[in-house]
Amino acid sequence: MLHTTENALLRRIAVEQAESRAPSLVAAVVRGHELVWTGARGKVDGATPTTETQYRIGSITKSFVAALVMRLRDEGRLDLNDPLDKHVPGTAIGAVTIAQLLAHTSGLTSESPGVWWERAEGADFAALDKSLATDALRHRSGARFHYSNVGYGVLGELVARLRGASWLEVLEAEILKPLELNRTTPHPIAPAATGWAVHPYADVLLHEPTPDAVAMAPAGQLWCSVLDLARWNRFVGGDTGDVLNPDTVAEMREPAHIDDDAHWTSAYGLGLQVIKLNGRRLAGHGGSMPGFLAMNLVDPKTGTGAVIMANSTSGVGIATTAADLIDLTEQHEPTLPTEWEPLVDADPALLALTGQWHWGPTPYVLKLLPDGWVSLVPVTGRGRQSRFRPEGSDTFTGLDGYYAGETLRVQRDTTGAVTHLDLATFVFTREPYGAPESIPGGVDEQGWRTREG
Question: Residue 194 needs a FRET pair 20 to 30 A away by CA distance; which of 110, 161, 205, 311 works?
Fold first, then answer.
């Protein structure tokens, strides 16, 4: 990274630490598979924090729990549409689905009933379950986004039930060890920052407690170093190692529900927040616990991401600072496009499908992508478009856009010649309304006319 870029990044966090009066602040920038910059300001135990200094990351913990749930889904151990009762029977909230819990659309209360859970010693799941026996739903399930820390306490129990071990033991075995996140723990291990509240009208500090949340721990228990959080940033961006398929993480990044108006700036996927800042659509998660703030954001398009952690209860602009670090990096050192290379292998049968197709009178272009994938895009660039992954002979599954999850089939006649494409019942032909026998409702026998009548 250029010295001018490094200086711009350092100045940004220096301004934030000074103006927000954060006792300390650490940050990092990731590009693709690489950690390219780290910076720190302030003091922890009288010294500048290092890349090994732990901070509590609060609700970023939820993204780890969501990854564990998606691993179970990918293994076929559960379906996201399953009601909770199928896997954690006997609760008062058994009708809510796993997907709703992941996306905060279950309608569950935001906080666990009783005392302020973030500042009190937690209890086991039996106690949490009992507290939810009455009046736990604040909204009709599926009706709206309503952030629920409780929902992730429940998901932690779901993971434990299906794996036969605590969610923390599963996390260690399935995510932390494979990704070599050696400084991500449920409790601080020195060197670790102390959590502070900063007085609003004087430059003095108040120590904040960091109790064990127990059943609520999946909502915000973890501590992390900036190096570990930077590796998790890469994970969210698609560098998933062997932990999850990148397609699954891409699915997690897709908004399931927005939490503001039609011109949305903030949404939530399956365990990941999606926000629009500085003209970018960023994915990741923020976190706050008494004494700590953290943010993990990545631009999936460019692969540039940023993380930031501070030991202050409030006041630090963690989201805007992380977004600014991404912007500064892109401004000073724009991402180079991936170097073009010809395909290693191209199936002649797929190559023969490329070119122009028509949905009625509308021209589309089918292109061959790596690994036998194809894309179908309107010639104008406007309208429904998707990529498709091969699922067998002449069959593909949509990956994004309007046709996500839908089936594209290549239809052939008795001689094996391609007649048309069937995409979720829509017919695509080489000529506008070609192959009349394949068009539902038929094609006017008079054909194309120069005028009405």
Answer: 110
Q: Which amino acid is at 444?
A: D
DSSP state of 219: G
Same structural domain for residues 60 and 122? yes
In angstroms, what CA-CA distances link 228 with 19, 42, 318?
27, 20, 18
User: What would the DSSP string read from start to end of 108-157?
Assistant: B-SS-SSS-GGGS--B-HHHHHHHTSSS-BSS-TTSS----HHHHHHHHH
> What's the distance, Cα to Cα, between the start and end of the chain in Å?
69
Q: What single-letter DSSP state applies at residue 245? A: -
The alpha carbon of residue 240 and the mean position of all alpha carbons in its chain are separated, in whole angstroms, by 12
* Residue-range definition of the domain harbouring residue 421: 348-438
The answer to whether residues 432 and 283 belong to one domain is no
Tokens of 435: 């192959």
Token match 């739903």: residue? 137
One-character DSSP codes across 350-411: HHTT-EEEEETTEEEEEEE-GGG-EEEEETTS-S--EEEEEEETTEEEE-SGGGTT-EEEEE
We report the CATH number of the domain holding residue 52 as 3.40.710.10
Assess contact for 438 and 411: CB atoms under 8 A.
Answer: yes
Cβ 203 vs Cβ 195: under 8 Å: no
Residues 74 and 189 reside in one and the same domain: yes
Same domain, 68 and 155: yes
Residues in the chain: 453
pLDDT of residue 73: 98
The answer to whether residue 46 scores a pLDDT higher than 80 is: yes
CB count within 10 Å of CB 368 equals 16
* 303 and 422 inside one domain: no
pLDDT at 262: 64
Quick check: 407 and 392 in contact, CB under 8 A? Answer: no
How much is the pTM?
0.90
Confidence band for 43, pLDDT divided at 50, 70 and 90: very high
Sign of CA dihedral 248, 150, 57, 158: negative
Q: How many CB atoms sit inside 10 A of residue 241's CB?
A: 12
- DSSP, collapsed to helix, strand or coil, labels residue 301 as coil
CA-to-CA distance for 26 and 57, rounded, in angstroms? 12
Angle between helices 246-253 and 226-237 (to 10 degrees): 90
Per the CB < 8 A criterion, the answer to whether 138 and 146 are in contact is yes
The 10s digit of each residue's pLDDT in 236-247 is 999 999 999 999
Q: Residue 189: count other Cβ atoms within 10 Å of its Cβ.
A: 13
**With contact defined as beta carbons under 8 Å apart, do 150 and 128 qualify?**
yes
Residue matched to tokens 């100045």: 11
DSSP letter for 331, please.
H
Please name the helix (run of DSSP H) or strand (run of DSSP E) that holds residue 102, with its range, or none.
helix 98-103
